[in-house]
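Section 3.1: Structural characterization of target chains.
Under the original work plan, the team committed to producing a structural model for every single-chain target entering the pipeline before any wet-lab resources were allocated. The record below documents one such target. The sequence was received from the expression subgroup and is listed exactly as submitted; it comprises 434 residues.
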Amino acid sequence: MYILALIHTFPFIVNDIWSHDMINQWDTSVVYWTGVVALLAQTWLTFGSMSPIRKMWYEAFKVMHFIAVVTFVVFFFFHCDHTLTSWDYFIATGVLYVVCVLYSQIRTFARHGFGQRANISLAANGLIQVSVPVAFDWVPGQHCFLRFRSMGLHGVTLHPFTICSLPHSPAKKVGGEGSSSSRTVDFYIRPSGGFTGRLAKHAAGGTSEPVLLYGPYGGVNMQRLLECHRLVVIAGGSGAGWTLPFVELQIRHVQRVLRAEENAEVAPSLRLVLATRDRATCKWYLGKIQELLGAYNTALAAVKSSVEIYFTGEGGKEELLESSSSPTQPSKGQFTSKLDEKDMEKVLPPEGSMSDSIDDLDALGVETHMGRPDLNNIVAKEGSREWSQNLGVFVCGPLEMQNDVRNAVADQQLDIIKGSVKDVYLHLEHFDWA
């Protein structure tokens, strides 16, 4: 559209310069200069939306994007001057857009209500935890858009976050199902600048805020997931929270097989790989794993699962496994470093919580490694096992990590003709807009 606008503009400029009518047109024709304003707004919308600019100055980009959109539409409208009934198309587009927005809002209010409140707090590693009671079901990997109504100008925009929990807590399950009161969507949000930075300050000490929830959307293909005999879940950094539903789903699946007195070999195996340079996230994550196992009264080995932690930050293994039980010294990490000392004190987990002390890692069944994981070797090793079994690979991490896994899975797909695997299913989850 921008290229067509330039093709439309240049002949007029050249023709008016040749005919010595440029200044007269600019001074007397509203249509002329409104086109220039629209073109300038469109130039920013085109080049300002490029990935490096958008990521470097996202908050400024977002504000200027809204301003440029409104400017472009208004001045483009006047520039067209109802030529060839052009305004009819503007009106038709406006009607369709408004109807879509109204439908989305009405559907959201009808499905989720208008009085939802989100409990916002800071996790022990500095991630923002947002919990919203809901009355719907969802699957791993799905995300929702949240609108925090009390966050000033941020309450006007929607913010997408991936759900990091499963419906129905084990304590409230009856016959495999649960009541709607046990459904709480949990989000673990990485604090940075702009909105999430303000939300982190808001969350220090815990608070409850009115919220509008849109979704859920997306998610993994559950049919493909359930067909897999082996699951490999890989995450990096703040993607740790994204893996928790897979761990809980694995526990439920294996226990369901055992209750049905079926062969335990029918249940899939789970290999979970987390790479992080944040020591606080390592401890927080191990605590969450321990909480899940404790809630279902089981162990990793009993549910055919293994957890591997790859610490890519500074310090040795001893520093990584240092006790986190001190009530006065919270772990300084990648996300807690963004908080001041006053907020740091509020990050401390309550006394006696599972996150305060982590059991011996060998007893828990967790492997720890220093350095980056060899993702190609991990995927290749899993894909080289019994050829008749399906392999599912699920990734949430930086683009570098996703590219490495994508290439490794592509290699495995090429090996299908050699009979090494039956099928490989790959699901990628992005940290932000790709």
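The mean pLDDT is 82.
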